[in-house]
Task: inverse folding
């Protein structure tokens, strides 16, 4: 009978450790951080494209100085806002980043509308390449954002669910993460057609 | 024996619950069709000869380089976004080899007059957004505008292959997947071996250790197809395992009914008899380009 008890204790410990979520919660938080890193790299990719884009447009559309300047300013502001992993639980910090990136998105979409007036530019190979790259980057941002939000949903869901909620409350103290909300202005950019 | 029955029941319950939760995902518009092969011409824009030729070319390309390029044509997107549908297709099909992520999709929506090249992580270096955009703009769409789908698709796929040629080389591990067991299965496998060993040779622990040291690597090599370095490690593991198992069996009275008293049925995944085509487990991050004609 004794060995059954031993076995029972062993099973109990194994189940307790694997179902209380001590490990899985931390794993899910890691997934959130990784997904966020992906968003950051795609945002950086977009920021890196902009100087080239501005230079190309400038050569054809000198009269659009104001629109171009807005893009440059918005880029500067967007690249200055960075979040640390701890900031992912801070609604104000996330709000600030979303606002800065959203502003850049709308400045870019205004630029793309203005470009419509310059047929020479629209036929320029370099510009067409840049446009493809910009669209590709916007699409990557979308994908990274969706995956990040899914990771956050998983994580936020599990810290509220029993028994992980208890583990988190007494042992881990992990904070709820903020979603990276869909930015309506950002969706406009890839839709520019000729 | 009652508790094994209980565990089995609980396991069944958890499995059911998991299935229920997985099943309650929202239903998405425009289902991704089945992956029939490398050429999935659901819109019927290709001639049979072109489809066969493409299938062969892409098959040879994968055999040589392990890179998977697949064509999907649909009659209509039914209002779905091109980029969204394209990503769902590659996520469902998992084109490209696992870890290498060397898959790419050419998606054509006939009635929407839209097309997209979706590029896996591993091919993004060569088949960049820029290159994908040029392939669509300069190579495919001019042919499509003439109504020549066959030539447009052939030229487009060729350009995609040219762009990524030499990026990857097929190796044994990409040709033969599912090699070696996963850690969980291996653990169970060894536990079964040791417990049986322990029961039989409970009175002579050192003999059990010796038998374990010989049998474990032999089983490992035969059943799991493990390499020589593993064999060495398994011999040591088998020795220790045999010793412990015998000691434990002794301490608990050496009853013939073990905790692991099930059948030792163990198979290392299904292999052979499968001649179809499937994705290798590659992943995508939204790279590529879209266009229209």
Result:
């Amino acid at each position: 009978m004794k060995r059954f008890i031993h076995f029972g204790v062993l099973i109990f410990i194994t189940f307790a450790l694997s179902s209380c979520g001590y490990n899985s919660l931390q794993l899910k938080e890691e997934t959130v951080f990784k997904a966020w890193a992906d968003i950051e790299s795609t945002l950086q990719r977009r920021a890196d494209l902009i100087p080239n884009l501005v230079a190309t447009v400038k050569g054809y559309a000198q009269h659009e100085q104001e629109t171009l300047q807005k893009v440059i300013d918005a880029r500067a502001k967007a690249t200055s806002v960075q979040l640390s992993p701890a900031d992912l639980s801070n609604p104000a910090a996330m709000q600030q980043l979303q606002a800065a990136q959203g502003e850049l998105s709308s400045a870019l979409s205004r630029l793309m509308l203005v470009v419509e007036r310059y047929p020479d530019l629209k036929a320029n190979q370099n510009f067409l390449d840049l446009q493809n790259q910009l669209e590709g980057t916007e699409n990557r941002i979308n994908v990274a954002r969706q995956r990040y939000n899914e990771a956050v949903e998983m994580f936020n869901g599990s810290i509220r669910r029993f028994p992980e909620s208890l583990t988190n409350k007494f042992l881990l103290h992990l904070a709820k993460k903020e979603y990276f909300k869909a930015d309506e202005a950002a969706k406009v950019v890839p839709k520019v057609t000729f | 024996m009652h508790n094994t029955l209980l565990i089995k029941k609980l396991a069944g319950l958890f499995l059911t619950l998991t299935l229920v939760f997985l099943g309650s995902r929202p239903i998405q518009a425009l289902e991704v069709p089945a992956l029939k092969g490398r050429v999935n011409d659901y819109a019927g824009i290709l001639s049979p000869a072109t489809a066969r030729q493409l299938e062969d070319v892409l098959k040879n390309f994968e055999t040589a380089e392990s890179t998977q390029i697949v064509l999907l044509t649909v009659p209509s997107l039914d209002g779905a976004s091109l980029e969204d549908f394209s990503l769902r297709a590659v996520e469902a099909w998992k084109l490209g080899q696992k870890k290498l992520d060397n898959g790419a999709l050419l998606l054509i929506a006939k009635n929407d007059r839209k097309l997209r090249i979706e590029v896996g992580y591993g091919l993004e270096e060569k088949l960049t957004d820029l290159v994908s955009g040029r392939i669509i703009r300069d190579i495919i769409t001019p042919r499509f505008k003439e109504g020549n789908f066959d030539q447009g698709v052939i030229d487009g796929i060729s350009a995609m292959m040219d762009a990524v040629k030499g990026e990857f080389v097929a190796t044994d591990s990409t040709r033969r997947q599912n090699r070696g067991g996963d850690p969980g299965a291996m653990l169970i496998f060894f536990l079964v071996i040791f417990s049986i060993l322990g029961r039989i040779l409970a009175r002579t622990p050192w003999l059990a250790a010796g038998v374990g040291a010989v049998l474990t690597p032999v089983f490992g090599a035969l059943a799991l197809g493990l390499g020589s370095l593993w064999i060495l490690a398994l011999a040591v593991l088998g020795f220790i395992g045999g010793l412990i198992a015998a000691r434990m069996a002794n301490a608990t009275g050496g009853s013939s009914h073990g905790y692991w008293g099930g059948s030792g049925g163990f198979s290392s995944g299904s292999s052979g008899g499968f001649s179809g085509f499937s994705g290798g487990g590659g992943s995508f991050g939204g790279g590529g380009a879209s266009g229209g004609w």
About this structure: Residues 188-194 of chain A have pLDDT under 50 and may be disordered. The domain at 32-187 of chain A is CATH 1.20.1440.20 (de novo design (two linked rop proteins)).
